[in-house]
Amino acid sequence: MNTPNTSTAPTRVRAILADDERLMREQLRSRLTEVWPDLDIVAEAKNGLEAVELVREHRPDLVFLDIRMPGLTGVDAARQIAQLPEDDSWLVPEIVFITAYDQYAVEAFEQGVADYVLKPAERERLLVTVERIKKRLAQRSEAAVPDTAEPAGAPLQQLLHKLSGQLNPGAKPDYLQWIQATVGPAIQMIPVEDVLFFISDEKYTRVQTARVEALIRKPIKELVDELDPSLFWQIHRSTLVNARAIDGITRDFRGRQMVGVKGLSEKLEVSRSYTHLFKGM
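Request: output the structure for the sequence above.
Response:
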């Protein structure tokens, strides 16, 4: 039987701030110093592109992203950050959105996969955010999840799609309906709703249905933005699974969460950044 790992969040959490307004960055840094003295702000970004590069360079635990930034919005930056390669020593960072608009904040809070700070950052509200983030960082190291656990909530990309729609209200999502894939020597059109999962290696992405295994060249980081996030959940940097095809969660001999797929004996690994999807309600 697995036993819970009682380790807690790191004493020194490393963070990056991203906001195109210098005064807002200074104000947030000052307030964070008050309410979270152990927080190390390792870098600051003036736009979304810079934020992604700084995350790649510094590998922080936490990123504060202004939702509206020139060039690359905070939402688009979060999408790119979520696809950065992780390993045993670093996971995709927790995201806190900075916004002047309450509707974005409500979406982030209700989804439970990110938090928010309203401009200007008020001390009392920031204290709430800090406690939530500390708890989420501590929970990352928990090892035990009941084998009967059900999916607990939609993944981060679903929230990012919703926020992107709010930022661009006239742009209706146009999700893929068909996948053109190679099956042996032939090209076949596969309805997206029939796909059980997508899994990538360095060159190809495998498309698995109940009857067919096919290959495409489109990587997971592109498919994430082209598929309906309410249907396809990312459970690993290299894996998207049809939420309707999930048959249960187990653990392998190394303690890793494994997703069972309806009708198949194959199981899909869940990376540590996505284990929160399968916490018991």
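The longest strand covers residues 39-45.
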